[in-house]
Amino acid sequence: MAYVRKNAGALTATERKRFVDAVLEVKRRGEYDEFVRTHVAYFAADGETQLRTAHMAPSFLPWHRRFLLDMENALRRVDGSVTLPYWDWTRDRTATSVPWTKDLLGGNGRRSDQQVTTGPFAYATGNWTIKVGVTDGRYLTRDLGRAASPIQLPTKDDVSWALNDPVYDVKPWDSTVTQGFRNKLEGWGTGSGSASWHNHNRVHRWVGGAMLGAASVNDPVFWLHHAYLDMQWERWQQAHSSHRYLPAAPPGTGDAQHGRVVARHDKLPPWSDTPDQLENMSGVYRYE
Amino acid sequence: MVDGDDAAAAGATEQIRADTTAGPGRRRMMRGLLSCAAALALAPVVAASRPAPPAAGGDSFDETYRGRRIQGVRLPEAGRSTSDDAWRITIDGRPLHLMRRADGTWLSMVDHYTSYRTPLEAARAAVDELGPGQRLSDLSPDPLDGMLPDGVKDMMGRMGLTVDTGGMGGMDMSGGGGTGAPVPDMGMGAGGRHGVRA
């Protein structure tokens, strides 16, 4: 029977504690740092010629769906009652709202060095030492809202802009496309700077610190953020039930994207699952 | 000294072993694999001491930005395999890995969800994000991407390996029986990327 992924704000005190304890145990076992490494290794950009799976590609959504399932399974091996909560950043929009509470993810980084000093993931607890990081800093960092140059989280309208596009993705299946649900949600804009911070990307930037870099998985909010994005994929499917993951077939040998994107029935590295197999999760979990 | 291609080719036959931590074995191996290529790649950086403008078209830059030394040099075209342009960037001497977007903009390991018009802008943006006293780590997956074959780059990237430019000696190419394809030894149990499979 399918288990339930809940809004982080709807968790009871006990559920929050069990989630946090399970995350800390996955970290203690050394498994968490492997998730960090995997995310670093599978971030390939589209200006290069290798296969792209996790970002700037149609498989952005199924890749992260599968990645979340691996993490959720790791948590559930520790505590079978735990599931991944999601953070609805269209509703919980401030640096003090859910999930930035002391009993969940802890608060903002301090001004001097962005170090998170509150909650279960503060360095001083001894339970959350960064081992695979972009810098040699060993503590978790955040800069919620970007103090030096403030930005806002995406809004409900921003998410609707993505959800209202009936086509999953379009050629050339990369970060330059201006149509299609996938990139409108992933959030690569045309040009550079603020134009390239839509939905998913903008949230990484709003959280800042570790979440801005290749090792963004080091901040546990990564999972809550991507669970919310995963939920949007399900909402999009419900709204456009005749539409599916694209491309349905691999780009041909004459196509510049040949060998660079994962089609519907291709295996999605590092797993053996295909996007087709990952489209329907109703037998595994549901959102409420 | 062997040239970069020879060093990489020799390294490609090396049995690669990744530990869950950046232990001395892995570091020594990477140093052996890459030290010669690194020496070649960094030589122009040392030579380029004049400040260069950020505009595209320059082949190098060297500036102090917010107290950090940013140096960059465009790699020679001959060594490139995957991109029409490639740069070697360091911040305070530590390599900053850049990736290229299809629209020609650049993103760094530090600032991975935004892209910038030039390598220098991306490097400055990375400095903006570095906390006081923090230095870049050795996480960048393929700092010599312009000079290594795709297979080696891919292998390095997936294993989270990078070059240790701090050590230029100690060629250690003693891997025996290097007759097979350049497939890394993934015998690392739960420490490998396959360890995350459910």
Descriptive account of the structure:
- The complex is a heterodimer of chains A (288) and B (198).
- Chain A has 288 residues and is an all-alpha fold.
- Chain A has one domain: di-copper center containing domain from catechol oxidase (Orthogonal Bundle), CATH 1.10.1280.10.
- Chain A is built from eight helices and two strands; from the N terminus they run βααααααααβ.
- Chain A has helices spanning 13-28, 31-41, 60-78, 156-163, 181-186, 199-207, 221-239, 275-278, and strands at 3-5, 285-287.
- Chain A has a two-stranded parallel sheet with strand order 1-2.
- Chain B is of the alpha+beta class.
- Chain B has one domain (4-170): protein ne1242 fold.
- In chain B, 27% of the residues lie in helices and 13% in strands.
- Chain B has helices spanning 4-12, 24-47, 119-129, 150-159, and strands spanning 60-65, 68-74, 87-91, 94-95, 98-100, 106-108.
- In chain B, the strands form two sheets. A four-stranded antiparallel sheet of chain B has the order 1-2-3-4, with helices on both faces. Chain B has a two-stranded antiparallel sheet with strand order 5-6.
- In chain B, a hairpin with a 2-residue loop joins strand 1 (60-65) and strand 2 (68-74).
- In chain B, helix 1 packs antiparallel against helix 2.
- At the A-B interface, helix 2, helix 3 and helix 6 of A face helix 3 and helix 4 of B.
- Chain B: Keywords: Copper, Signal.
- Chain B: One of its GO terms (biological process) is melanin biosynthetic process.
- Chain B: One of its GO terms (molecular function) is copper ion binding.
- Chain B: InterPro entries: GriE/MELC1_sf, MelC1, TAT_signal.
- Chain B: Pfam families: MelC1.
- Chain A: Keywords: Copper, Metal-binding, Oxidoreductase.
